[in-house]
Structures are given as structure tokens and as C-alpha cells.
Amino acid sequence: MDVNITITGRTQRSVQMSTGERIEEHVIFNIKMGSKQDGSSIIPPPLSPSDLDSGVLRVNQQDFCAAFPYHIIVDRECKLVQVGKDL
Fold first, then answer.
1. Could you tell me the end-to-end alpha-carbon distance of the chain, in angstroms, rounded to an integer?
2. What is the pLDDT of residue 74?
3. How much is the pLDDT for 4?
4. CA 25 to CA 27: how far, in whole Å?
5. Alpha helices, DSSP H only, in 1-87?
6. What would the pLDDT profile of 19-39 be if each residue is shown by its tens digit?
7. Cys-Cys crosslink for 87: which of 30, 43, 45, 83, Cβ 3.0 to 4.6 Å?
8. Cα R_g (the chain), whole angstroms
9. Pairing verdict, β 72-74 and 80-83
């Protein structure tokens, strides 16, 4: 599968912290899916009910964010859904 990634925006700024100065950078990516080249797909086949467990979420959102403080979750349109507590 062909995937094209381009940078559409990039900014940097200097931020004064109590521990000194640091550079913050914000980068915007444009990700486009191209045509399939080898007939394979990055999308897995649908799961059957027998492939799934009980479906009970064993970790709540607060615990997940605490366990993964630097995570980012985006939806299929690349809109921000959730970030870790340290971001």
C-alpha cells in the first residue's frame, strides 16, 4: 500500500521554564493513502464474535491516561480524541 506523508505546517517557539529555556515544536502532517501495490491491506479482516472476549473494559479512562501519560489518540479523520495527562 502506498502512503504519502507531507508536512503542511511547522512552527517553533522558545518557552521559558523554571528549569531553563526549551523549544516547543508543532508539526502538522497530511497523510494520504495511495493505491494498493501488492494487493495487501493494512486494514485487518473483521473479527468474529468468537475472536472477541467478553468486551468488558478492564481499565477506565483515568487509569489508562495515568498508565500511558504520553499517548495520543486520533479518530479516522485524524481529529484529536484523547491525550495523556502529561501532554
1. 32
2. 87
3. 85
4. 7
5. 61-67
6. 889 888 998 989 888 766 555
7. 83
8. 19
9. antiparallel
Q: Could you give the C-alpha distances from 58 to 16, 37, 64, 74, in angstroms and in order?
A: 40, 39, 10, 21
Q: What amino acid is encoded at 15 in this protein? A: V
Distance in angstroms (rounded) separating the CA atoms of residues 18 and 44:
47
* Whether the predicted pLDDT of 53 surpasses 70: no
Give the span between the Cα atoms of 68 and 87, in whole angstroms.
10
Is the full-model pTM beyond 0.85?
no
Exposure class string for 35-55: b at 16+ Cβ within 10 A, else e: eeeeeeeeeeeeeeeeeeeee
